[in-house]
Write a structure and sequence with these properties.
single chain; Hypothetical protein af1432; two-stranded antiparallel ribbon; 20 helices; about 60% helix
Length: about 400
């Protein structure tokens, strides 16, 4: 499958920013700003284009290990304490992040970039590595990440520049090595630094790193899809395996119904991404085990529209976007977010609606045990009789998963 991988990773970085903002109060576009600063720094060091592509991926996904460790990583306020506390927890977060990225389609060797992206120049980081022992890309991301968190700025002004410059000066050869500090200052004199808060930052990032499409086999697609699904599912332990379950079921059902290989692969990817919009919904709603109030449910329903919006930023992804985002639409027009009718919903979109409900009914969660197949199929049939789901597809679900 030919995919805009950088666009997909950019969408994923937005999801990461949403979750990290909830946990650590980083600002909007944190990951993309770190990536943009990192690329500009690396250009000062004459880094080849292929390596710049991989640096962008690492920077966009530098905090991909969304577990309890992120909660601890920036638990303190580094604006008042420039030391890094909780070293063992940061180390675990970095190791998990390193492992997560191993299956992504990199062009060059990025070993240890994520593992060591919190190492300090003087060896006081979680793994005790000095800057001479750490890959250049890890050192670059470390500087850009901490600097952006330190500034915590929605707009970048002359005062923000002075604050950042003081932070770099105060921590040269302790947090940051002088080589990286010099490269940052060369890339970002005040006139360039103040543009970091402008609305066209993302456009400028893709100008620095063109979004070259890549041909991926199904193993690579699954690796990408599972990576993104875990980011969504880490958001709430109540749905910790839902996205991967929907992806697996969607692929199996597509094959059972006789669709070709390309469609089956696309269904897997759409299933993995169908709930990516939930990253913009607060955990107080996502993790509420009781029935949601009308106001809370109204907020929850926005997640499908957020999925549509996030995936709209990927080039030539409209088909997969729609399969993913329309999973709460109903044939009678009473679904959400777009109130599509039967005439507007194709077979794959109808499949995703059935699979999402089936997976939610049959999977166990902390507050409920998963239903047996027979009971879940009965509920789907009732929904088809009400005019919500496609009855023929409900029958196919029953036949496909009866012995799974």
């Amino acid at each position: 499958m030919n995919i805009d991988v950088m666009g997909l990773i950019g969408a994923c970085s937005y999801a990461l920013d949403c979750v990290e903002a909830e946990l650590t109060q980083v600002t909007t576009l944190h990951s993309k700003r770190v990536a943009y600063m990192s690329i500009r720094m690396a250009r000062q060091m004459n880094t080849p284009q292929d390596a710049l592509q991989d640096l962008a991926v690492c920077a966009l996904l530098h905090d991909n290990a969304l577990t309890q460790y992120i909660r601890e990583e920036l638990n303190g306020d580094i604006t008042s304490d420039t030391s890094v506390s909780g070293k063992p927890l940061i180390g675990i977060h970095c190791t998990l992040g390193e492992d997560n990225l191993q299956r992504l389609p990199f062009l060059t060797n990025v070993c240890d970039v994520i593992r060591y992206h919190h190492e300090n120049a003087d060896g006081s980081g979680p793994f005790g590595k000095t800057w001479q022992e750490v890959p250049l890309f890890a050192r670059i991301i470390h500087l850009c990440d901490l600097l952006d968190v330190y500034c915590r700025a929605k707009t970048f002004t002359s005062d923000t520049y002075k604050k950042a410059d003081h932070f770099l000066s105060a921590n040269t050869d302790t947090l940051f090595d002088h080589t990286c500090v010099d490269a940052f200052r060369s890339a970002f004199p005040e006139s360039e630094f103040v543009t970091l808060g402008e609305n066209d930052l993302e456009t400028r990032l893709w100008q620095e790193v063109p979004r070259i499409r890549q041909e991926l086999d199904f193993t690579q697609i699954q690796a990408l899809a599972d990576f993104f699904a875990r980011i969504v599912d880490y958001k709430s332990p109540f749905t910790s395996t839902h996205s991967i379950g929907v992806a697996t079921d969607a692929e199996l059902l597509a094959r059972y119904m006789g669709f070709d290989e390309d469609t089956a692969q696309k269904m897997y990817l759409a299933g993995a991404l169908h709930d990516i919009g939930k990253v913009a919904i607060g955990n107080e709603i996502l993790e509420k085990p009781d029935r949601l109030t009308d106001d809370e449910f109204a907020v929850m329903k926005h997640h499908a529209a957020y999925t549509y919006s996030i995936l709209s930023n990927i080039e030539d992804f409209e088909e997969i976007r729609d399969w993913a985002a329309f999973h709460h639409e109903r044939l009678d027009g009473t679904g959400y977010p777009f109130k599509k009718t039967a005439a507007e919903l194709n077979t794959q979109e109808r499949i995703m609606a059935c699979v999402d409900i089936y997976q939610a009914l049959t999977e166990s969660r902390p507050y409920k045990k998963g239903m047996p197949h027979e009971k879940a199929s009965s509920i789907l049939r009732d929904m088809a009789e009400r005019g919500w789901l496609d009855g023929d597809i409900v029958t196919q679900v029953d036949q496909c998963f009866v012995n799974v």
